[in-house]
Write a structure and sequence with these properties.
single chain; about 270 residues; alpha+beta; four-stranded antiparallel beta sheet; about 25% helix; globular; DNA-binding
Length: about 270
Amino acid sequence: MPELPEIETTRKGIAPYVVGKRVTDVIIRERRLRWPIPAGLKRSLKNKAIRKLRRRAKYLLFYTDNGCLLLHLGMSGSLRIIDNKWPPAKHDHVDIVFASGRALRFHDPRRFGSMLWTKGDPMDHKLLNQLGPEPLSDAFVADYLYARSRKRTQAIKTFIIDSRIVVGVGNIYASESLFLARINPNRKAGTISKARYGTLIVAIKDVLNRAIEKGGTTLRDFINSDGQPGYFKNELQVYGRGGEPCNNCQRPIKVARLGQRSTFYCASCQT
DNA sequence: ATGCGGACCTGTTAGC
DNA sequence: TGCTAACAGGTCCGCA
């Protein structure tokens, strides 16, 4: 489900109810996520205050005084702020209950999400320490992508979706960014000029920023922390529009399979 | 080092 | 209507 804009939307939504609040209980109904929820998680979090809530890539980091909760939403996860007394529904796997009487509820039908605990600096954690730069940061520039891509034969689409290259660009926004930059997703990463990488960088930042403004993209089941969908779906130019006319040239949008993922593009506008 | 395919899960939809 | 297959927003791991 969620790519960077959806995680950022979630972070902004839950922050006022989480930051500075004390955890009074952790209710775990299902431990079997991508990795099992650690046995000591409840003990680690209980009676601790959440000091900071940050996002790195698609991970949410809940900092306490003695460690950090690492949370990933996987493909189908979502977080909501609920009244503590609200009865759980199917796939509501975890509640983090606060002294305020509200709780943060983790819902994830496919259980590709994760909840892990780490002591020390979470950026040193195995899952975070190999990640590429944040796409909205100043470190994400044409020179960087150009240098990383030299001699690489991989398609540009699978290259920019690789979190070691840049984080936060998932399947939807990869197709959208490449359309905006007029780059064919099949093109080899190593054959693209520095100037075109400059265009691509601008496109990625633009797409992600606009998606964050609209509250993310809801295809079927993404909801924000209020239970509301995101409205960027209305702005999608190619994703999910196979066979429909390109908004630029009216020719039908093509669908290809790259790295086992559906990829949408206009063969006429993107070269 | 790079690049590819399989794996982890459940739910929805398309096709017969 | 009912069954089956394919597909879905992520990403780690193991192999060539």
